[in-house]
Amino acid sequence: MDPFLTLLHSFSSGLLEQELLSLKFLCREKIGKRKLECVQSGVELFNLLLEQQLIARDRVDFLEGLLRSIKREDLISQLKQFVDEGEVSAPGDQPDAHERRLQKAAIEVICEYVGKDWRMLVRKLGVSEVKIERIVAAYPLNLREQLFQSLQEWQKWKGKDAKVTDLIKALRGCRMNLVADKIEEALLRLNAGAN
At what angle do helices 118-125 and 164-173 cross, to 10 degrees? Predict the structure, then answer.
């Protein structure tokens, strides 16, 4: 199965009716009005864009512009991941529910207590400089959101191999021991509450 078509299909299933209407409107100059009137889903719209060669596996600028126009930063992020890595991680490549709960708690603590030195932490986790700069550009005035998005990027990149223990180890490696201690305390409370 073509990973690009899989990505477009996942975009389509995540579009709201109003977003599809907006996309159709934005494509009026490129696709005839009659063809657009027949479009009932994102898949149909993407199919027309593929036929017109406005989008392709190696030509995503037009698609990115469309997604930016409807303010779907989440889809833009997936598209950029696809471009960077050639594919989007499959759902089976995600951590289990328990690990996701632990990660969520750890990320909340990190976002609360790690300040301007957040780049050192995400570099220690292995997030690339290109991705860091892209996130900073997307959220130029929001330090907390930059950190949060960088941690999300790390989670997507690592998939099921993203572990809270890696977060704690990276924090300790950056001499952010207080934050690491707070995460361990939060995890103890979370685990005690689960039992």
Answer: 120
CB 72 within 8 A of CB 66: no
Which residues, other chains included, contact 86 with Cβ-Cβ below 8 Å and sequence gap of 6+? Answer: 3
Question: Quick one: DSSP state of residue 95?
Answer: P
Give residue-wise pLDDT tens across range 146-172.
Answer: 999 899 888 888 888 889 999 999 999
CB 159 within 8 A of CB 91: no
Per-residue model confidence as pLDDT tens digits over 127-151: 888 889 988 988 888 999 999 989 9
**Domains with residue ranges and CATH for the chain:** 3-88 (1.10.533.10), 92-194 (1.10.533.10)
- Other beta carbons less than 10 A from residue 145's beta carbon: 14
Helix (H) or strand (E) holding 34: helix 33-38
- Tell me which residue has tokens 């594919």: 87
Q: Is 141 helix (H, G, I), strand (E, B) or coil?
A: coil
